[in-house]
Design brief:
Length: about 70
């Protein structure tokens, strides 16, 4: 189970990183074509995806460490 969790966390982290990079590049060129807003009306920016990527990579590392011990 830990191996599957580590793999899923890695791929989700990688996906969030790519989305954050795309959002940041478009933001640097002042293109707001990918404006995603939550139900409250606040936009979801690249920083949300970057923090999510960090969380998923941390999940992947923790799951891998647990697998390496056992």
């Amino acid at each position: 189970m830990e191996k599957q969790l580590a793999a899923a966390g890695y791929w989700l982290g990688l996906t969030c990183t790519v989305v954050a990079l795309i959002f940041r590049i478009l933001n640097a060129f002042n293109v707001n074509a990918l404006h995603i807003s939550a139900s409250g009306g606040n936009p979801i920016g690249y920083l949300s995806f970057l923090r999510g990527a960090g969380l998923f990579f941390l999940l992947s590392i923790a799951s891998w460490c647990r697998t390496a011990k056992s």
